[in-house]
Amino acid sequence: MEILEAGRWAPSAGNSQPWNFILLKDEQVKKNVADATTNGGFLAEASIGIALSKEKVKEMLDIPKKKRLLSIISIGYPAESCLKSSLRKTRKELYR
User: Is the whole model's pTM more than 0.70, yes or no?
Assistant: First the structure.
């Protein structure tokens, strides 16, 4: 959870620290949230999810109305079947 610790220590205006993190670990909750969002498919497969911007999701997760959800972040490791080749295109292939 080093990434959340880094976020916790990030600078904020007047040291107000206005953020909260909501970790989604339960498989069914992640699936429900993914289904309720556009492009949320990555969330269902992620090890952990961090909230997003949808009123329906706020209701699902019982988030107070005064809180704003800004983004969704899927965190995890890719399945080996998804790993791509490390070969990169040459400059000649990229530029004319």
Answer: no
